[in-house]
Write a structure and sequence with these properties.
mainly alpha; 3% strand; 415 residues
Length: 415
């Protein structure tokens, strides 16, 4: 498997020290979403496995998770982020494990698994607090904020925004935009849409330099949502249309579906049901092949509401059944993931029990070796006390000695 001369050179440096993974991370992070970088990621995994470089291997699975995330292969993304988490966990690397938690909170949020997303986000934040990893902390706080927005818990999302502002660390350029997007969406829903528009304009100025296509499409959509909230329906529609056309031009499939969903809400509000149904059906076609389940679920519910309002009970019932089915599928997936985590935790407990059993077996062996040639009872008791103290910390130590000739037991105590 290839990787290029420069990449191979950096890989070989990992054998000297896995701290050199930073250079590999920089190379892959520049453009993770293409086939060339997938080759680099696979080569990193191959090299790490061959040389038993477990930290580097954990980063390889982390990057592979993001590759599958961008491909809309969310279950594969979950699997790879989870492997990354487990490898970091085995190394007791609490500083870098937070990044695997961030990957999981992102992908679960997009899958509509908000409970799982929140759980992994909070887990990652606790690691960051313990290791003082402010960089990962801000990323996780922003993503947990986005998760609360998706759940429509805007008050909780606002609390997180306030906590980010209280962190003594300046936002990087890559952190600044998601933070501003989250802040704007909170303002649209529970604050001032006019304030949201100002935040969006500021973000657009920054993005004109960064030129990240997914963000630009999102900004047009948020602008449409802000105008919708203020009752400026014509301006709102023009922004949704602009976002839609931009997403089509750059093949931003998820962003296109997200924009169409918000656009359909405007059409329902203005009673343009024909256009709304057209948008919702388009969402369902695209979302079903890409597993955009949260968007598809909302589209089914909107179609049910439209047809119910229009008195078309057969169509309304059809979309209600579709809505219930996808809701059940999402719930079943959540339960399967929670069960898998419970099984993993149980396996860890069993492994720890075996580890403790092995330690105790070794202890008995050590005691046996030291006392086997010794007939001094006082010395034997002292040896046993010394060995037991290595395993557990006690205030008092007692031992019973049975005298076969006298047919009685004697008790000895030590502090």
């Amino acid at each position: 498997m290839g990787g290029g001369g420069m990449f191979e050179k950096e890989l070989n440096k990992l054998i000297e020290s896995e701290d050199n993974i930073e250079c590999i991370k920089d190379i892959i992070s520049k453009d993770i979403y293409n086939e060339k970088q997938k080759e680099n990621i696979e080569r990193l995994l191959e090299f790490s496995s061959e040389n038993q470089l477990f930290r580097s291997e954990a980063w390889g699975y982390y990057f592979l998770g993001w590759y599958y995330f961008d491909e809309s292969n969310y279950e594969q993304a979950v699997d790879n982020f989870m492997i990354s988490y487990e490898l970091f966990d085995k190394l007791n690397n609490k500083y870098e494990i937070a990044y695997a938690c961030n990957g999981l909170t992102n992908v679960y949020c997009l899958m509509g698994q908000y409970k799982l997303s929140n759980e992994w986000g909070l887990k990652g934040i606790s690691f960051c607090e313990e290791t003082r990893n402010n960089k990962a902390m801000i990323i996780l706080l922003v993503n947990t904020c986005i998760n609360y927005i998706q759940m429509e818990y805007y008050d909780k999302a606002f609390e997180i925004i306030e906590s980010i502002e209280g962190i003594d660390s300046e936002l990087t350029k890559s952190q600044q935009i998601p933070y501003m997007l989250a802040k704007a969406e909170i303002e649209i829903n529970i604050g001032s849409p006019d304030k949201a528009l100002k935040i969006i304009e500021q973000a657009m100025k920054i993005e004109s330099v960064n030129d990240i296509k997914t963000v630009i499409g999102e900004l047009f959509k948020l602008k449409g949502m802000a105008y919708l909230k203020t009752g400026k329906y014509d301006l709102s529609e023009s922004q949704f249309e602009k976002s839609y056309n931009f997403c089509v031009k750059y093949d931003l499939i998820y962003e296109k579906c997200s924009t169409m969903l918000q656009w359909s809400k405007l059409c329902i509000l203005t009673e343009n049901y024909e256009k709304s149904v057209e948008l919702l059906n388009q969402i369902i076609i695209t979302s079903s092949s890409n597993k955009f389940n949260p968007i598809m679920r909302e589209a089914f519910h909107s179609l049910y509401s439209i047809y119910k309002k229009q008195g078309e009970s057969e169509k309304a019932l059809h979309y209600l059944e579709k809505y219930i089915k996808i809701n059940d599928e999402m719930y079943d997936y959540e339960q399967s993931q929670l069960m898998a985590e419970m099984n993993l935790n149980n396996t860890k407990r069993v492994a720890e029990q075996y580890k403790q059993l092995y330690k105790r077996t070794e202890l008995l062996s050590s005691i046996g070796q030291r006392i086997i040639s010794n007939l001094d009872l006082t010395l034997i008791i002292r040896i046993i006390h010394e060995e037991i103290s290595k395993l557990i910390d006690v205030d008092y130590f007692g031992i019973a000695v049975y005298d076969n000739e006298k047919n009685q037991s004697e008790y000895y105590f030590m502090k």
